[in-house]
């Protein structure tokens, strides 16, 4: 360090907050520059800590990316669980779950891409795979309850949940790609969920 040059310190992060700060900054960089723009050294520089400081929390760049994916799935699962456990009839909760997914997917598109890439990687961790399946399990559980109440058509709840996810994920992908033309996202979401729930409903005899 040259004379007169300020020393790098860990400021407020040396008390255990550095990991959270690294993840927060990494998610910002991911949204702005994509995964290719992420490096531990650059994050250390952004946060004003020594270039070696991040290694105490992440052994390498891949560990950072995996931690971002875990954080993303944890937050998504919390939102979906809250929607599934909200008061009200099951169809309304299914619709709320769908809206929660669309809102998260559109607001955090680069993170969602990273989450799915990390989940499907050959060396993905058991924790990441479990977290990645939890949203489907939450939806399947709610569909099974709706089936028990005679509100949803018979069928494997997990497969019906996959179809439901394909609908809301497809809508979110169109929204992120600016492919909804002049249709407001909220209006498109309401229509997609109406069509989805109509299709899931138990047929009248």
Automatic annotation (TrEMBL):
Keyword Transcription regulation: yes
Organism from which the protein derives: Streptomyces katrae
Molecular function terms from GO: DNA-binding transcription factor activity; transcription cis-regulatory region binding
Superkingdom to which the source organism belongs: Bacteria
PROSITE patterns recorded: HTH_TETR_2
Protein name according to UniProt: Transcriptional regulator
Listed transmembrane segments: none
DNA-binding region (UniProt annotation): 39-58
Keyword Transcription recorded: yes
The entry's keywords: DNA-binding, Transcription, Transcription regulation
Residue stretches making up the HTH tetR-type domain: 16-76
InterPro entries: Homeodomain-like_sf (IPR009057), HTH-type_TetR-like_transc_reg (IPR050109), HTH_TetR (IPR001647), MT1864/Rv1816-like_C (IPR025996), Tet_transcr_reg_TetR-rel_C_sf (IPR036271)
PANTHER family referenced in this protein's UniProt entry, alphabetically: HTH-TYPE TRANSCRIPTIONAL REGULATOR RUTR (PTHR30055), TETR-FAMILY REGULATORY PROTEIN (PTHR30055:SF220)
């Amino acid at each position: 360090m040259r004379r007169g040059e300020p020393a790098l310190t860990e400021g407020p992060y040396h008390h255990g907050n550095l990991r959270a700060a690294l993840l927060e900054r990494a998610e910002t960089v991911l949204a702005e520059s994509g995964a290719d723009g992420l490096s531990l050294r650059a994050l250390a520089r952004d946060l004003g800590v020594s270039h070696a400081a991040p290694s105490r929390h992440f052994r390498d760049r891949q560990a950072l990316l995996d931690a971002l994916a875990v954080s993303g799935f944890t937050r998504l699962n919390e939102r979906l669980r809250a929607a599934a456990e909200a008061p009200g009839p099951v169809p309304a909760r299914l619709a709320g779950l769908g809206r929660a997914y669309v809102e998260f997917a559109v607001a955090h598109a680069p993170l969602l891409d990273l989450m799915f890439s990390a989940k499907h990687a050959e060396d993905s961790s058991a924790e990441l795979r479990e977290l990645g399946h939890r949203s489907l399990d939450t939806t399947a559980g709610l569909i099974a309850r709706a089936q028990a109440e005679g509100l949803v058509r018979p069928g494997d709840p997990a497969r019906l949940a996959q179809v439901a996810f394909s609908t809301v994920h497809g809508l979110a992908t169109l929204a992120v790609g600016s492919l909804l033309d002049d249709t407001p996202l909220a209006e498109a979401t309401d229509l997609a969920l109406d069509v989805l729930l109509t299709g899931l409903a138990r047929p009248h005899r």
